[in-house]
Design brief:
The protein is built from eight helices and two strands, in the order E-E-H-H-H-H-H-H-H-H. The chain is mainly α. It folds into two domains: about 80 residues, no CATH class; about 45 residues, no CATH class. A two-stranded antiparallel ribbon has the order 1-2. A hairpin with a 2-residue loop joins strand 1 and strand 2. The two termini are about 25 Å apart. The model has no long low-confidence stretch (mean pLDDT about 90).
Length: about 160
């Protein structure tokens, strides 16, 4: 997929969390009609295994509520603070486990996840890039190089 202006890496953190900012970017881009159609299947919650679903479950707030609050305005940090007040305020340890889990998704996971990652790498023409996780795949697929920058190091 091409680079999507305004859509950040899943490794980028808001507060203590990876991925959350990317979900907010997807919400805003979708509302502006700028989120490519290929991304729509993974937008929102209620879809098992989708990062948006996992994020909403982890935070204890529905995607619809996060979407409404995000589109009402404010910074990413404002939205996160609202989410933590409304849902589940996670401990630093919870966030460390969350970040580690998401950043390693696809790497030595159950066969279904590992096979899905391998298929996406093949279909995207990204064989030989050293991709081991879905975060790496997303970044490479969108034109970023998480391997040379070691993006995961800044996420801890």
């Amino acid at each position: 997929m091409p680079t999507v202006p305004g859509l950040r890496s899943p490794y980028a953190k808001v507060g203590r969390l990876v991925y959350f900012g990317r979900m907010l970017d997807k919400i805003r881009l979708h509302a502006q009609g700028k989120l490519p159609e290929d991304y729509l299947a993974n937008l929102g919650d209620g879809k098992p295994g989708v990062f948006d679903t996992r994020c909403c479950t982890f935070l204890g707030v529905s995607f619809a509520e996060i979407r409404q609050r995000t589109l009402a305005g404010g910074s990413d940090e404002d939205v996160l603070e609202w989410v933590e007040q409304k849902g589940i305020r996670r401990s630093d340890d919870d966030c460390l486990v969350w970040n580690s889990f998401l950043m390693k998704r696809g790497w030595h996971d159950p066969a279904a996840n590992t096979e899905t990652l391998k298929r996406r790498i093949r279909e995207g023409g990204l064989d030989g890039k050293g991709i081991e996780t879905f975060f790496d795949y997303i970044d490479c697929d969108e034109g970023r190089d998480p391997l040379s920058t070691k993006a995961w190091e800044s996420a801890y």
